[in-house]
Amino acid sequence: MSTPTTHGEEASVGPAAAEPDAVQPEAPPEVGEPAPADDVPASPQHSKPASGGGALRILALLVIIGGVVLMVAGGFTWYVVRDQLKAEQITVSDDADRFGGDEVDGPFTAYEQARVINKHALEASDGLTYAQLEQDDPRRDTVMTASFLRASLYTSVVSFGVAFFAFGMGILMILVGWALMSVNKRLNATT
């Protein structure tokens, strides 16, 4: 706002020359002045957690619980598959490369018995697979049954593998959860 002067020049009106009833803006604080402590809002950097918990602790507990669940599930699956195989009372053939005469109750014996079944089926069919045999060939039923038995044994081998993987991942998750708990304790000790 400017006002004309007697000499035709314009003079600017400052806060001192302003009307007395007008509200004047406050001057900004000087650059080096710290803000009063009452005006600083509490933020996560300036406040200590109320308890030793926090999101990291909760995450660590969830990871540990998940690890325990995986270990239990993996162990349970392993023993169920093993018990089902034992109930079938299958014995590895004596002409197997390994485990001949042993009971089929684990992944290695199941795999070896599946290989021997394939060997016997190919011997019985002169090296032909089920798909290569004529439909009226009497050996086709034998080769088909051998194929089903092998598939069942290989399925148990895969089940053992999945159970072992779950158990191992459970151990890994427990270790990760323990490490997260250690990090959480160190972070709480520094605050």
Q: Would you summarize the structure shown here?
A:
With 191 residues, the chain is mainly alpha-helical. It has helices at residues 55-87, 107-124, 139-190, and strands spanning 2-4, 10-12.
Using the alpha-carbon principal axes, give the shape.
elongated
Care to count the β-strands? 2
- Secondary structure class reads mainly alpha
What is the topology, as strand order, of the major beta sheet?
1-2
- What's the number of helices? 3
Q: How helical, in percent, are the residues?
A: 40-55%
Mean pLDDT: 84
The radius of gyration over CA amounts to 40 Å
- Structurally, how many domains make up the residues? 1
- Element order: H for helix, E for strand: EEHHH
Percentage of residues in DSSP E strands: under 5%
Query: How is the biggest beta sheet arranged?
Result: 2 strands, antiparallel
> What's the assembly state of these chains?
single chain
Distance between the termini: 54 Å
Question: Which residues sit in consecutive blocks of at least 5 with pLDDT less than 50?
Answer: none
